[in-house]
Amino acid sequence: MNERPTDFAGLLKQLLDTGVEFILVGGLAGNVHGAARATYDVDIVYRRTPDNLRRLTDALAPLQPYLRGAPPGLPFVLDVETLARGLNFTLRTTLGDLDLLGEVTGGGTFDALVSDTIGITLFGVECRCVSLETLIRLKQAAGRPKDLEALAELEAMYEEQDRA
To answer: 8-152 in CATH: which number?
Structure first.
């Protein structure tokens, strides 16, 4: 976790101001749907087109992105070539922690997920977020303890939404 709280609004605004195409997933997506569980980073699935990779690197360059958990001094430059050669990156930035996911277990790529999203306004900015049903599927597929712990609340919210 970052030493200071993640500036969720600042990170989202930075991405959107440069036109980055992404879908909000993870804990913050759960919060969008009403989950009370705390989250400490922003998780996004980003579109992997050359133009979007350029916009993403342009957005993040001023935020001094560095691999989260990497030893200090390890050479790392987040540029288009790095993004194109990699897929998923867990980053620490000056605005907080950001997980860049080129593909997410149980959901695939941006293009595979985009039809299962909703448009939202969060922190005064408009972006795409996975639907609650899709978020549940992603958490089940990830299977990590923290994802499985979040499932009970998400599934209860889905059942309540389904009854309404």
So the answer is: 3.30.460.40
